[in-house]
Amino acid sequence: MTYWEFTGRELVNCTCEYGCPCQFNALPDKGHCYAVAGIQIDKGKHGETALDGLKIGAMFKWPGAIHEGNGEALAFVDERASEEQREALLKIMTGQDTDPFATMFAVYASTGMLDIRAGWIVLLSLVPFLGPFMMLSRISDGAVQPWEIVVSVALLLAVLGAALWLAARIYRAGVLLYGQRPGVLAVWRMVRSGV
Question: Rounded to whole angstroms, how far apart are CA atoms 95 and 106?
């Protein structure tokens, strides 16, 4: 385990009422815990790697109390971080370089922290209807190439156009069949025929 330390400011907020019940040996007041965290590192190091001036953040989701585990997390690392600094910060955030329950990061380790640059997250950010959410998360991390934004928007517009075309066809078929009791088969035949 690599020795690390840092000082700075943190902001953590969850969906519970004021005073996080999980910190006071109680259950979440809504039955689940959704939280966000952001840390500005003023001065820090991971082994010989300097972490001064970098920022990290994460979004967390637990289906129940934090101590019950089964959570999910999405990590964000400052785009200014070198690859070595990024790896160091991810090791800290996932609890890999933390003694059991020595810091909050050890608790977060039970969540299965996701790397925003993972291939499957990149793929999901291109999928229409998920793209606007996933792409914004990736843009905030500085991990997006311009062509990815263009592909995401193009796919979203293509799917939107196809959905509007299909809706117009179904509407037209419904208007032409007004007064009748059309079944799904009759509407489908009219949509296919282009009437």
Answer: 4
Residue 141 is assigned to a structural domain of this protein: no
Q: What is the pTM of this model?
A: 0.56
pLDDT at 114 over 70: no
User: Poorest-confidence range of 25-34, 112-121, 153-162?
Assistant: 112-121
How open is the CA angle 39-26-115, to the nearest 5 degrees? 35
Q: Which residues contact 114 (CB under 8 A, 6 or more apart)?
A: 72, 73, 74, 75, 121
Co-location of 102 and 21 in the same domain? yes
Q: What is the count of structural domains for the chain?
A: 2
* Phi, psi at 99, each rounded to 5°: -65, 150
- Please list the residues that pair with 49 across neighbouring strands: 46
Q: Are residues 15 and 100 in the same domain?
A: yes
| 184: containing domain | 152-193
User: In which residue are the tokens 């037209």 written?
Assistant: 172
Query: Which is more confident, 25 or 93?
Result: 93
pLDDT at 44: 95
